[in-house]
Amino acid sequence: MRIVSGGATDVGRVRANNEDCFGIVAPMGLFILSDGMGGAAHGEVASALAVETVVKHCQEAENNPAAPVYGETRAGWNDRTKRLFSAVYLANKRIFESAEAHPEQKGMGATLTAAWINGPRLSIAHVGDSRAYLLRGGNLQQLTSDHSMVAEQVRRGIMTVAEAEQSEIQSVLLRALGSEPQVEIDTEEQELFARDVVLLCSDGLTRMVTEPEIAGALQSEPDPQRAAAKLVERANDAGGADNITVLVIRLESEYQGWFSRLRRWRKGANGNGLAGGN
Amino acid sequence: MAKLSLMFEDKLVKEVPVGGRPVGIGRSPDNDLPVDNLAVSNYHARVYFEAGRLVVEDLASLNGTFVNDLRIERATLHDGDSIHIGKHHIKVDATGDAPVPWDSGRKASAPRINETMVLDTKVRRDMLQQAAAMGERTQFAAGRMKVPTLIVLGGKVVQKEYVLTNKLTTIGKSSMASVRLKGWFKPPMAAQINQRDDGYYLGPGDKIPTVNGTPIAGPVRLNDGDVIEVAGVRLNFIYRD
User: Fold this and answer.
1) How close, in Å, is residue A171 to chain B by CA atoms?
2) How many CB pairs under 8 A join A and B?
3) Across the interface, do B204 and A160 touch by the CB < 8 Å criterion?
């Protein structure tokens, strides 16, 4: 399968600075999104540190698979999932330590949602209320759980989804990078198929644009970069109350049916001068 | 004019108006609202108007200031809000006009609560315990704490039952499918079940599954006891104890 991707970030219409940050390492199939928090520009420090740490750790592991793995990974996970988990564990530690060392950064933190695609395997590591979705067969399916107070109350049956969307405490997170020396990290492994679309986004998109609208935009715009820009624009049109970041990753089939395969094979064979035909 | 009423349980202890200068709250008797309790810091919090908004600010108190059960550093108050300090609470009556603004010396006047914040471990534990206690009283939630499971009623699959642990459970022939189908001509990804905050949703894959005999039109929420049929297998979705 071939991966095509695009990403866009915008400050929105209300906030003064963009505390979101994203990273795309296309050759590795690695995609990271982080939404920072904490006053006086420290949210930007936190999200940038998160993305940088994850990219670095994963790149190092590509060159040296024996590089140490941090945190308590599970035996059943694949290597990419373990590595991504380790990277997020490290990112939390870095942000926490930076905040401890610099009193002015006290309270800074970040969400982090990362996807690593290796062939048909997707690994996800996640902390906070940014989201990963999988668009498959027209259905937008959330691959992460929001670590927010309202989402937890919905999961416990105390609040309905509609009540949660109207709640004034939507910004209260139960987990984020940098608030404690260790953080609980969610992981998810999935198999990907051709035509699947993986979406990573910050809450600046999902609070402004409904899921059916997101699904519609992804289906109507095949170019990932343009799809990402379009979703950012939709969120801004809806008020742009927060920073908006969108990463669109599309999986395309390299297989084009038996006929074109046969043609390619014949061409290849002729080209090599090995064909035995007339 | 806005007014604060200090309450202990149901009893009104003291009432003060909020005017042009901040109202101090704390254990020390020189506060406008003295709160006689050891859990309260000497100068615990203050309430004042800023840019037309009524604001409460915690003064780095030991045990914290809570607005409607949410620990805050600083928050905009609305009519009917309740500020909890120790065992006391303060009812907020924000009706009436804002007086001449008092400059708190802070630049940022954005309400603190609109900013993303993370609860610390202790507060989170307390709040979730409280939430869990509330949840246990509702029947709806009772099923949620149970383990969602697919029991195989018929058809060729690898296991006899499957506990749904992933955000997305796939049913198909693919080697990575959560519920792996055996046999010829089975689709790689027949159907999928997505865990959402309010339950589990069955959606189509290469096939359109049926739930209790009816083909689904799009993702449908599964109820305890539903029977799913897809690609020659029958699965019973239950919430197990």
Assistant:
1) 5
2) 119
3) no
Confirm whether pTM is higher than 0.80: no
For chain B, which residues lie within 8 Å of any Cβ of chain A, measuring from their own Cβ?
70, 108, 113-121, 124, 127-128, 131-132, 134-135, 138, 140-142, 144-145, 166-168, 170, 174, 176-177, 188-189, 192, 194-198, 201, 203-205, 218-219
In terms of Cα–Cα distance, which of A114, A7, A6, A113 is closest to A58?
A114
Rounded Cα–Cα distance for residues A8 and B99 (Å): 44
Tokens of B139: 């029947």
Cβ neighbours of residue A278 closer than 8 Å, sequence gap 6 or more: none
Residue B179 burial (CB count, 10 A): 24
Range from A36-50, A66-80, A258-272 carrying the lowest mean pLDDT: A258-272
Chain B contact set for A142 (CB, 8 A): 167, 194, 196
Asked if A1 is an interface residue toward chain B (Cβ–Cβ < 8 A), one would say no
Rounded to a whole number of angstroms, the distance from the CA of A51 to the nearest CA of chain B is: 19
Do the Cβ atoms of B197 and A134 come within 8 Å? no
| Confidence check: pLDDT of B237 > 90 | yes
Residues recorded for chain A: 278
Cβ atoms of residues A251 and A11 within 8 Å: no
Start-to-end Cα distance in chain B: 55
A178: which 2 tokens? Answer: 């940098």
Distance, in Å, from the CA atom of A17 to the CA atom of A2, rounded to the nearest integer, reads 35
Contact A176, A127 (CB under 8 A): yes
Q: How far is CA A187 from CA A158, B113, B194, in A?
A: 25, 29, 15
pLDDT by residue (tens digit) across A153-201? 898 888 888 889 888 888 889 999 999 999 999 999 999 999 999 999 9
| Secondary structure class of B105 (helix, strand, coil) | coil
Residues from chain B contacting residue A191 (CB–CB below 8 Å) = 170, 174, 176-177, 189
Give residue B211's Cα distance to chain centre. Answer: 31
Contact check, Cβ <8 Å, A157/B140? yes
pLDDT at B37: 84
| pLDDT beyond 70 at A55 | yes
Mean pLDDT of the B225-230 span:
95
**How far does A188 lie from chain B, in Å, by closest CA?**
7
A8 close to B (CB below 8 A) = no
Better pLDDT: B113 or B149 = B149
Surface-to-core class of residue A61, CB atoms within 10 Å of its CB (0-12 exposed, 13-18 middle, 19+ buried): buried
- Rounded to the nearest 5 degrees, what angle is found at the Cα of A108, between the Cα atoms of A102 and A112? 130
Residue found by looking up tokens 């060729």 in the block: B156
Residue B229 makes CB contacts below 8 A (sequence gap 6+) with B209, B210, B213, B235
Q: How far is B87 from chain A (nearest CA, A)?
A: 23
